[in-house]
Design goal:
By secondary structure, the protein is mostly helical. It folds into 2 domains: 1-50; 54-126. 79% of the residues lie in helices and 0% in strands. The protein has helices at residues 2-24, 31-40, 54-85, 91-125. The longest helix has 35 residues, at 91-125. The relative contact order is 0.08.
């Protein structure tokens, strides 16, 4: 049972890693569209520089990192709930699962507040 659970968790994590770029670029165009636009707009050997600044690149990196952290904390909550359900009345396993859920919720709240602070900073101050 433990080996099957490990294989399923590895499969789920690999699927999330493969699908993650589409969550990051969900608000804008896809990376392939950006490459096509860049290649078609070139006049001569070099294209003109666009309005991408260091702050926008840092903002995209921070958005991606906070999104990844949010996904990780939700996965931790689901795994702790699964452990709680499979505890079979063992109080030690139930208390471990409760502690894991508590810490994952605290981490999720911290991540969401960091995202809210970043959204405020990027929209009003940058």
């Amino acid at each position: 049972m433990k080996k099957i659970f490990q294989q399923i968790s590895i499969l789920i994590s690999l699927v999330f890693l493969l699908v993650l770029p589409y969550f990051v670029f969900a608000a804008g165009s896809s990376p392939l569209d950006r490459l096509h636009n860049t290649g078609s707009g070139a006049s001569g050997p070099y294209a003109e520089a666009d309005a991408t600044t260091m702050s926008s690149i840092i903002g995209m990196v921070i958005n991606a990192a906070l999104s990844l952290l949010g996904i990780i904390f939700v996965i931790l909550i689901v795994l702790a709930g699964f452990k709680w359900m499979m505890a079979g009345g063992n109080e030690e396993d139930v208390s471990k699962a409760k502690d894991r859920i508590q810490t994952a919720i605290i981490g999720l709240v911290l991540t969401m507040s960091a995202y809210a602070i970043w959204a405020f900073i990027s929209s009003y101050l940058l």
